[in-house]
Amino acid sequence: MGIALIVLLIAGGLVILAALWAVVLYNGLIRLKNQVEEGWSDIDVQLKRRHDLIPNLVNTAKGYLTHEKDLLENITKTRSQAMAAQDAGDQSGLAKAENALGGLLGNLRIAFENYPDLKGNQPMMQLMDELSDTENKIQAARRFYNGVVRDFNTKIQMFPNSIIAGMLGFKAREFFEVEDPKERENVEVKF
């Protein structure tokens, strides 16, 4: 009877340790899942800010940038596509539209440099500063989001966590990445 009791206590202890491990793992996964959702929410807030700034920027620039009409129309169209993807919860479509929008806004900055009257326009200067600040915040939010997605995906993919994570329905999340390979290339500066 003494050995049976010891075996029973050891088995009970192992079951308790396994249960504690599962609880700690589950709580860690929930914490990371919530950080991923917080990171996405931060991106969402900054993209909304960008989307709110763009119509003001385009309207202010329209009077000056008559030759850049196609650029302004493309910015407006791409903004609409990004907002539609955001409203639909399509993260992949949103990332693609936002990457395109970022490139178009870069082209707007270049056009802005070519018009001295526009550079002297105080509302336009304030909008460009706001847009630059927003772009920096979007980059910071994307870095945070991608960091917590990396941590979350690593945790749910490592053994033995993958077993519990799979049983509990945790799925890997997508990174918010640059879609266009040209955006990864070095910029050539000519003087």
Number of DSSP helical runs? 6
* Name of the top-level CATH class: Mainly Alpha
Please tally the β strands and state the result.
0
Helix content: over 70%
Task: Count structural domains.
Answer: 1
- Largest β sheet strand count, sense and barrel closure: none
CATH superfamily: LemA-like domain
For the record, give the distance between the C-alpha atoms at the N and C termini, rounded to a whole number.
Answer: 90 Å
As residue ranges, the low-confidence spans are 186-191
- The share of residues in extended strands comes to under 5%
If you compute it from the alpha carbons, what radius of gyration comes out, rounded to the nearest whole angstrom? 25 Å
Following the backbone from N to C, one meets helices and strands in this order, namely HHHHHH
Structural classification: mainly alpha
Morphology: rod-shaped
Annotated CATH architecture: Up-down Bundle
Question: What is the CATH topology descriptor?
Answer: de novo design (two linked rop proteins)
Residue-averaged pLDDT:
82
Notes on the protein architecture:
- The protein has 191 residues and is an all-alpha fold.
- The protein has a single domain, classed as Up-down Bundle (de novo design (two linked rop proteins)), CATH 1.20.1440.
- The protein has helices at 2-62, 69-88, 91-113, 116-119, 122-157, 161-167.
- The longest helix is centred in the first third of the chain and has 61 residues, at 2-62.
- The radius of gyration is 25 Å and the shape is rod-shaped.
